[in-house]
Amino acid sequence: MADALLDVHGIGTSVHFKPAHRLAAYRYLDCRLPVTEQIAARQLSLPCYPAMTGADVQRVIDALHAIRA
Questions:
Q1: Euclidean distance between CA atoms 2 and 46, whole angstroms
Q2: What's the pTM?
Q3: CATH code for position 63
Q4: What is the pLDDT of residues 12-68, one digit of tens each?
């Protein structure tokens, strides 16, 4: 989805939130959290910034609908 948003619609995305058990402070725990891993693999952050207009928001929404169709 991230590739389509960028390549087709020119909308950049990113991943801002990693599962806590993957952060350096917790790596020593060596735990398995398969549901968390599955969800983390499917999440991404959409554009969100103070100067974002209603038209910008609608453009992102329309792009998401176009990809999901």
A1: 9
A2: 0.74
A3: 3.90.1150.10
A4: 999 888 898 889 999 888 888 999 999 999 899 999 999 999 999 999 999 999 998
* Beta-bridge mates of residue 45: 14
Residues sharing a CB contact under 8 Å with residue 26, sequence separation 6 or more, in sequence order: 20
Contact yes or no for 56/8 (Cβ under 8 A): no
Domain tally, the chain: 1
**What's the domain range around 32?**
2-68
Q: For residue 14, which phi and psi values (nearest 5 degrees)?
A: -155, 175
Instruction: Return the H-helix or E-strand segment holding 36.
Output: helix 34-42
Closest to 44 measured CA to CA, from 12, 69, 21: 12
Angle between helices 2-9 and 54-68 (to 10 degrees): 120
